[in-house]
Design goal:
The protein has 387 residues and is an alpha/beta fold. 37% of the residues lie in helices and 16% in strands.
Amino acid sequence: MKITGLTIWDVDYGLSHNVNQHPVIIKIDTDAGISGAGEVGLAYGDGNRGAIHTLTQLFERHLKGQDAQQIGAIWDRLYRKTFWGQSPGPVLFGAVSAIDNALWDIKGKALGRPVCDLLGGRMWDDIRLYANGWFTKMAKPEQAAERVLQIQEEGYTACKLDPFEMNRDGQFEFPNRHIPRDWALLAVDRIRAIREAVGPDFDICLDIHGNLGTTDAITYGRMLAEHRPFFYEEPVDPGNFDSMVKVGEEVPIPIAGGERLYTRYQFRPFIERQALDILQPDIGLCGGISEMMKIAAMAEVYNLHVQPHNCGAPVATAAAVHAVFAMPNFIILEWFPYWPDGRYDIVTEPYERKARNGRLAAPTAPGLGIELNEAYLDRFAKLVLTG
């Protein structure tokens, strides 16, 4: 089954909270008439168009004419024969991850099986989700508490927010390393109000986006610990291993991170030293399904949990869903049910619309269980490459 073509869509939604939002979606075609969908994990921030150019190079040099079912061999080639693959970053490995996930989609469709079945079979009948993407323009603690009560009423038993990312005026703004004390105490009050509103059985996940310095991450992490957060994500720079270890030693909250780490090689020291309690590889950046399963296996040796980072469009969600259903040390999945920009229409039946009461049932359709909605995608910039 030879690879014959690659289509790339730059789904540009412009600015949201001063952050670029444009998922990059791909389709890999084969001479058997079977195609697979993938997504670059750079759906927000800057750099996604670099991945588009990288995808064109990878297709011409490493994919065209290759057997689409030889996923491991193709991954190894993209890692070892691209030179920069052996010291990976987000642009190259966003492209590699999209390719890997599309190849798994092809293989599942060719065999008539869900991808999770090909990864060892499903471990769970359904999985737990936490709601993200809801915390906007809520300066006052009572506003955040009221919104989380609505999320709880929708059936979710967990949510995530960055309590520091909203300034005193209710505007999106990341703080400096040393955050003004009144701003920081307002963030702590937000979590206090949420905990008092939802009670003890609802989990509150905290994402700090790596913005605080080590001292402030410890100071305010200790205050936040009183409200029993589920985890404390990227309290400091995500690649600063020693600082992450120090915060973990000083703050009694499980430390999470990994969306800005690529391949098992970058995860290795964080796993071996147990600098992270919950690993968060992004399936559209870490190396795809193939690499995420290896990262999870390494983490399992150290009794660590995995919660894949999932902050893109429905194709990435589908790949993450299949990986976690085959993952023994999976703990919870990040879920964005409130995107206002139309990205759920990228596929015909997104998993985001199948969640019920904060949970998702096991997938049963072949491949990733999705089909690209090309009529919708063709509204955006499109690049078609053929062999």
